[in-house]
Amino acid sequence: MTFPADRMEILERENMKLSASVQEQITKIEEYKATLTGCLQKLTNLTKKVEFMEMGGISYTELDFELLKLEIKEMQTLVEQLRFSINGSSALVESLFEEIHNISIMVNHLESYDKNNVLAVRHEIAALRKRLEDCEKNRVTPTQPSISYVISCYLVVIGTCKHGGLANISKPFVVQLNWLGFSYKFGGWGKDTFPGANQDNHWVAPLQTDGRIMNIVRFYTSYDNLLLYKSPTDKILTKNLPYNQIDYTNCGQGGGMIVYNHTMYYNCYNSRDICKYSVDTNVVERKPLPDASFNNRFSYASSSWQDIDLASDENGLWAIYSTEQNSGNIVISKLNSTSLTVEKTWSTSQYKLGATNAFMVCGVLYATRTLNTRKEEIFYMYDTNTNKEGQLSIILDKMMENVQSLAYNPNDQKLFMFNDAYLITYDLVFKPLLNQA
């Protein structure tokens, strides 16, 4: 048998090709390493900038969003090159790609936040100065002021109902993303709505990603801590059972929770009960809400599992829900905050699934509906003081498409919205009393 020289030659050629290919890949890896090191340094610098900003060193308006987006684009390009160069899938690369995509979305939202809020606040301040000047001029003018003038100058004493109802609403103020992130789109947030309660304290309660279960509530002792996700206190509502089982009995269901006088009220999981959770003692009490539909029978149009929506206003604690007897239309009940008994009930003609959410102000129910992905309309009202209902049209701008919860706080006359994972606030504007017009 002769020596297979031809095969040896082929083997040597293949070996040379393989060596060249390996060297090429090593060169690519070195290039990627250098690029990744540069990106890491950029991210470190950006982190320092943001930390400096959060400590009060620089304002949102000084952030160079264009530079930020350019650097993120560079990282996106790098990851796309990695995806292309690697044969088959890589969980790490795909994870990096998803993270950078989420960062890009966040920067776009922050840029929108800056334009829609910081600049808007400046315009509002200028407009307010102008209104005050106009009011001062009209004060000394003997002519009778117009209705529009009276509304624009009318100020309501916080905590009172000396007004003629809701007249308008401010632009949205985007506070931040909830601490669990984009995936946790459902939930609620706000302050203690009891008259005179400490308004430094804030709570945030994202639901699990199924949009149903509230198993944790986070409390912050100041607005700054809320913004910095700093020094939170977490209240866990689940209980661990033997054999890795979990007890959800004391958990909440849906985004209809409210905090009133150091107590969180919410629809108890898998029931028509209202739970009363003491923030101070962690004790849970519960009582059924008579005839209330539950377990997603009559929720709101844009959020599931919110069959029972708890609310509070200047007059106390309320439940907004539906019953089979009222054909799925909204029912309003005034609750005793201590015993959870129903003090009085009103039945409306508004179908609950025809509204995206609702809130109470001075005993008046206001319901919202979707106009498009960026606008809601406060379109319906029911006044429990007069037993009268009616239509209105107040446009509400929103940052994201779906409204998961609305809660009014009489201590600052703000509306708190949980909007596809984002925490939003609005200022309410009221009409004057008719005898003051």
Task: Walk me through the structure.
The chain folds into two domains: 5-114, no CATH class; 159-436, Beta Barrel (Lipocalin), CATH 2.40.128.630. The protein is an alpha+beta fold. The termini are far apart. It is elongated, with a radius of gyration of 28 Å. Helix 1 runs antiparallel to helix 2. The longest helix is centred in the first third of the chain and has 50 residues, at 5-54. The strands form seven sheets. Strands 1, 2, 23, 24 and 25 form a five-stranded antiparallel sheet that branches. The protein has a four-stranded antiparallel sheet with strand order 3-4-6-7. A four-stranded antiparallel sheet has the order 11-12-13-14, with no helix packed on it. Helices cover 30% and strands 31% of the residues.
The largest β sheet comes out as:
5 strands, antiparallel
What are the secondary-structure elements, in order, as H or E?
HHHHEEEEEEHEEEEEEEEEEEEEEEEEEE
| Fraction of residues in β-strands | 25-35%
CATH topology of the largest domain: Lipocalin
Keywords: Secreted
Protein name: Olfactomedin 4
Pfam family, one: OLF
Subcellular location: Secreted
Primary descriptors:
5 helices, five-stranded antiparallel β-sheet, four-stranded antiparallel β-sheet, secreted, elongated, Olfactomedin 4, Lipocalin, Olfac-like_dom, 437 residues, 2 domains, Olfactomedin-like_domain
Please describe the topology of this protein.
Blueprint: H1 5-54, H2 65-85, H3 91-139, H4 147-153, E1 166-169, E2 173-177, E3 187-190, E4 202-206, E5 213-214, E6 216-220, H5 223-228, E7 233-236, E8 239-241, E9 245-247, E10 252-253, E11 258-259, E12 263-267, E13 273-278, E14 284-288, E15 309-313, E16 316-322, E17 329-335, E18 342-351, E19 357-361, E20 364-372, E21 375-383, E22 388-397, E23 405-409, E24 414-419, E25 422-430
Antiparallel strand pairs: 1-25, 2-25, 3-4, 4-6, 5-10, 6-7, 8-9, 11-12, 12-13, 13-14, 15-16, 16-17, 17-18, 19-20, 20-21, 21-22, 23-24, 24-25
